[in-house]
């Protein structure tokens, strides 16, 4: 797989010159071992690696090594890097650097995985800066998917969601692997009924060098990236890379500008027979502008204009209108992820994997709102204070409703493998500690629309009461701890024609929280213990054909927000009622699939089935003007369908790829709403398009390259009563470029153009906030249940981006 630019090491260049003409067009190539630096980590999700007991000893310099051309040469991967050889017991789809390196450099992990079967990405801007985004896999949303970067979890500690713009810069990904049906036994995730997105960094190069790129395009977008590889540091065998990027863009609709700075690093030490230790991390700081999420009525009336955008100028004459000023909706976030994955070969039969990790995050998700100067409440406690809000009219002034989250997370995973004969036993333990503090202070807005300190960290800028306390709409603190024990056995039988995976994981999770707002609730807590068995089987019929079966169980506790009461400071009324008596989601899933790995065709077909109880649906709620994440219990659900993907090995430098999914997801029971039951049994689940399809065509002759992709998403319902839905839509992207030959100290200078949403389709890309019913409905018991309008993401418009890059 290519790293940042095709052929990141001299081995790639040597390899082509040493291939015999008779081997051209076959699946192998010859290269001299140790002739140059490969800078390539072990390939994941392929056939199991030899154990320490059977692994070959280091070869002398003249040893000839056989490589699969399709898996090693840039521009020569099946499906243009959108499909990978698989040999496991479950469905996995992979995007490699060969595809990633041709996309817009600020593309997120969600956007890069959008071509894979089952993946439905809802975005709000074409460039990938906005956090207003979601991904569903087989109809299961962002918060139902685990995100892991080289063994460390990236999910939010409170809401399980992932923000892909924070994960890593695309140039540093070696591959993105999406397991649609389940997470691995040893994965440090709790919520992965929707599968696992496993992200892998490239390994640092063995020789000093680097990569650099600059980009400029639509909406005054600019981005700069540089990565430096240390090579072998002082003959210690330690090598590393550090990268930095800066990017900024104007909102493609409405006012606003986003800016992001990002740092990735990885340091690696390898020694002995397979020993490997690394230190990895990523830091992200960003300020983004909110894209309003319209209802169906406002979408039909205004489209991408009018009331579906924030105001470019502050309206001081009307507080309700002034609250829509774009500067009051800027979202500031800082995150730091760090991990130290270690693999040790203890004996010929015993290996140990340990990954300690830590995560720090701080963010403010504000929104413009209005607040009364009198008649205030702190929780349920009436206040005698009178505020003096600038520009207030009739006792009501504009404020910025801040919503801050400060979280800390740390833990470790450990797995001890013992291989003997045809058994590979694993025994492991995962511990995770989370400390999450969420509050909602308010900041006064000046008559020109200015509100200081976008981060809401400066205590003197927020509104305070006469006793010195901050006026708050909410304040809660949660300590969560997870302990998980797992045991498994991978059995390789009949010369590895038959592989059987057996596993069992026991997860114990506790939450202990306090609500600091005056009122009936102070201490909350919950405890969960769930047994999670699994079984997987793979039968290799011959060298080109396999069948596999996988059965797993998953559970998920509701978001932390479900535990707490929240209050309106203008009335003392509760926005939401929390409860410690929350029900965990539990699911059982099965997959039955067929794989083909032929001379020209690589593909798979997978049948899947899910059964859920207490299905947790991620949604958004407006709390005192701030838009916050929460969950709703959707009862039972059954999801069935089929995934297919096919990629061709390169033919005359062309590599086509197609994927598709048919999904039938239904609600199993009537749901309670407003003291009555909605007739939802048998209706289609929200965010579950029946049909999806994607196709891509890549061309790469080593110099000229291009990728054309098209993606179709069928209609999807936004309510549990199926009385409102998003229409189907089709979008297409195009990338074209040219790589020059090496020149002096520059390695393959490259020029590239990316065209995103090339037809400038204006469409609703997904459901932001589903509701029970959009229209007034008569319940089972005869009462009228009022409708509530869902909100939607508006997909990003057309964008073009030029990028110049080079290695050195």
Mean of pLDDT? 88
The largest sheet is: 23 strands, antiparallel
Please report the total strand number as a whole number.
Answer: 49
Poorly predicted regions are 1-72
Compute the CA-based radius of gyration: 27 Å
- Count the DSSP helices: 6
Secondary-structure-derived class:
mainly beta
Terminal residue distance? 19 Å
The best one-word shape is globular
Give the tags.
about 800 residues, five-stranded mixed beta sheet, 6 helices, globular, disordered N terminus
How does this structure look, described?
Helix content is 4%, strand content 49%. The strands form twelve sheets. It has a 23-stranded antiparallel sheet that branches. A five-stranded mixed sheet has the order 3-8-9-6-7. It contains six helices and 49 strands. Residues 1-72 have low confidence and may be disordered. With 808 residues, the protein is mostly beta strands. It is a multi-pass membrane protein. Keywords: Cell outer membrane, Ion transport, Iron, Iron transport, Membrane, Receptor, Signal, TonB box, Transmembrane, Transmembrane beta strand, Transport. Residues 308-758 form the TonB-dependent receptor-like beta-barrel domain.
């Amino acid at each position: 797989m290519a790293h940042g630019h095709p052929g990141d090491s001299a081995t790639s260049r040597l390899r082509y010159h040493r291939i015999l003409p008779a081997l051209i067009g076959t699946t192998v190539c010859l290269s001299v071992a140790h002739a140059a630096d490969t800078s390539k980590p072990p390939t994941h999700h392929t056939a199991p690696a030899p154990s320490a007991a059977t692994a070959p000893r280091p070869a002398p310099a003249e040893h000839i090594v056989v490589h699969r051309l399709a898996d090693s040469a840039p521009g020569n991967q099946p499906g243009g890097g959108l499909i990978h050889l698989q040999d496991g017991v479950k469905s996995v789809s992979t995007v490699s650097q060969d595809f990633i390196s041709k996309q817009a450099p600020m593309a997120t992990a969600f956007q890069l995985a959008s071509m894979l079967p089952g993946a439905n990405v809802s975005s709000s801007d074409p460039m990938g800066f906005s956090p207003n985004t979601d991904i569903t896999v087989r109809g299961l949303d962002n918060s139902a998917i685990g995100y892991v970067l080289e063994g460390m979890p990236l999910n939010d500690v409170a809401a399980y969601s992932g923000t892909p713009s924070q994960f890593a810069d695309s140039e540093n990904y070696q591959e993105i692997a999406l397991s649609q049906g389940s997470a691995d036994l040893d994965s440090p995730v709790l919520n992965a009924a929707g599968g696992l997105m496993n992200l892998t960094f490239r390994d640092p190069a063995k020789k000093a060098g680097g990569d650099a790129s600059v980009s400029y395009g639509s909406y005054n977008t600019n981005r700069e990236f540089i990565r430096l590889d240390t090579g072998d540091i002082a003959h210690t065998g330690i090598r590393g890379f550090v990268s930095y990027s800066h990017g900024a863009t104007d909102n493609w609709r409405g006012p606003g500008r986003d800016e992001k700075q990002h740092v990735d690093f990885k340091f690696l030490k390898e020694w002995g027979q397979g020993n490997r230790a690394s230190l990895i991390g990523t830091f992200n700081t960003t300020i983004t502008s909110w894209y309003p999420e319209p209802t169906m009525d406002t979408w039909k009336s205004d489209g991408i204009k009018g009331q579906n955008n924030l105001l470019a100028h502050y309206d001081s004459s009307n507080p309700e209108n002034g609250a829509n000023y774009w500067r009051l909706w800027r979202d500031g976030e800082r995150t730091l992820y760090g991990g130290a994955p270690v693999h040790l070969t203890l004996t010929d039969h015993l290996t140990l994997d340990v990954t300690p990790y830590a995560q720090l995050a701080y963010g403010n998700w504000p929104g413009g709102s209005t607040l009364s100067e009198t008649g205030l409440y702190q929780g349920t406690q009436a206040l005698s204070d009178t505020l003096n809000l600038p520009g207030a009219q009739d006792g009501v002034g504009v404020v910025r409703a801040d919503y801050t989250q400060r979280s800390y997370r740390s833990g470790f995973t450990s797995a001890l493998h013992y291989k003997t004969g045809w058994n590979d036993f694993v025994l492991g333990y995962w511990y995770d500690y989370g400390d999450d503090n969420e509050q909602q202070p308010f900041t006064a807005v000046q008559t020109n629309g200015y509100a200081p300190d976008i981060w809401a960290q400066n205590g003197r800028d927020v509104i305070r009461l006469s006793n010195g306390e901050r006026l708050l709409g909410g304040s809660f603190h949660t300590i969560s701890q997870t302990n998980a024990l797992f045991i498994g056995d991978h059995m390789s039988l009949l010369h590895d024609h038959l592989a059987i995976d057996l596993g069992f994981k026991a997860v114990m999770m506790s939450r202990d929280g306090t609500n600091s707002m005056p009122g009936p609730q102070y201490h909350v807590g919950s405890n969960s213990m769930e047994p999670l068995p699994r079984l997987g089987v793979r039968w290799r019929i011959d060298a080109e054909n396999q069948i596999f079966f996988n059965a797993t169980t998953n559970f998920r506790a509701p978001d932390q927000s479900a535990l707490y009461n929240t209050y309106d400071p203008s009335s003392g009324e509760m926005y939401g009622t929390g409860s410690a008596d929350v029900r965990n989601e539990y699911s059982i899933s099965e997959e039955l699939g067929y794989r083909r790995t032929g001379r020209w065709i690589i593909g798979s077909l997978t049948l899947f089935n899910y059964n859920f109880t207490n299905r947790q649906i991620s949604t958004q709620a407006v709390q005192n003007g701030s838009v916050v994440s929460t969950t709703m219990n959707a009862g039972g659900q059954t999801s069935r369908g089929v995934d297919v993907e096919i990629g061709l090995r390169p033919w005359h430098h062309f590599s086509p790829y197609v994927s598709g999914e048919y999904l039938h997801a239904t609600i199993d029971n009537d749901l309670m709403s407003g003291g009555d039951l909605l007739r939802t049994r048998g209706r289609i689940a929200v965010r579950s398009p029946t049909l999806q399809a994607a196709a891509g065509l890549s061309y790469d002759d080593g110099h000229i390259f291009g990728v054309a992709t098209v993606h179709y998403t069928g209609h999807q319902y936004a309510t549990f009563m199926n009385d409102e839905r998003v229409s189907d839509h089709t979008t297409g992207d195009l990338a074209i470029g040219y790589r020059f030959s090496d020149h002096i100290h520059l390695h393959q200078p490259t020029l590239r153009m990316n065209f995103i949403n090339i037809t400038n389709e204006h469409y609703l890309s997904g459901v932001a906030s589903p509701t029970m019913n959009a229209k007034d409905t008569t319940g089972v018991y005869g009462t009228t249940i009022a409708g509530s309008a869902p909100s939607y993401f508006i997909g990003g418009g057309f964008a073009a981006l030029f990028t110049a890059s080079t290695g050195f």
